[in-house]
Fold this protein.
Amino acid sequence: MIIGQILKDALERNASDVILTSDTFPVFKIFGHTRYQEEYWILDQKELQQQILGLMNEQQRDTFKRDLELDFGIDLKNHSRFRVNVFSEKKWLWIVFRPIANKVASFEDLWLPEQVLDFTKKKHGLVLVTGSVWSWKSTTLTSLIETINNHKHKHIITVEDPIEYTFKNEQSIIEQREVWTHTRSFENGLKYALRQASDVIMIWEMRDLETFRLALRAAETGNLVFATLHTSGAARTVSRVIDMFPPEEKEQIRSQLADSLVWVIWQELLERKDRDGRVLASELLVNTTSVSNMIRKDTPHLIQWAIETWAGDWMVTMKRSLQNLKERWLID
């Protein structure tokens, strides 16, 4: 199967993404740069469509025919798991593959602030991992969940679209639920997780208001909830969450967030200076008593000041994170 060989070659070349469509050569994205792979022949539309549909089960094919786009996961035996997105554009079908690491990245590999490890010991609250589309948010979440899995006796439930890294039970027991395969939506998966004796809940992405409401409720009622958001800036994330809600709910949401938020990390990937690859820069906001009061009193503009004031103790600014990477000769 031509797609299988393309994916194997992509893994050998450390490609972060593989992009296929008709009438052009396959494209590998390597360290942020797209490169045509001209050693392959160009697939025509009929051949590509047959191969794409062959990757799906019957339910996925029906969903794709209805919605014209689909996220799902596949396993390339003895090699890797891939997250897959198929979509239509003009007259062509496109498919994008993203390999999922077989091994969970360590905190040392991710260059995360050391303080983050302490917060995996919390019994309840809301943790938000934020950043752009390609900033290793899911990698960070996976590392956090695996840390809990290895050191704590917890019942962990994940709601994903699709399932990426496959966890194995260590000290904890983990249930992984995929949207449309095991539950109808993030909202449904989260709602029923509250009835399944959960201790830790991981939501791959906060996509709607009801999911936010349920996440806050879960954090208030004894769960440690991890989730991702597409935002930039730890302080701006707080404003973004509150602004999503209608005016009549904002006061209640500020109160819930002030009580439930544990920390927010904003992270971005940068090209390394010392060798090929990427390195993570991050900003950490911790919900101290002062920050909680800022959220409750609707003074989010002071939160960035709080990060800068307490940087070096509990918090980390993006500026300081970049400076540390520069001092280690990892970035320009």
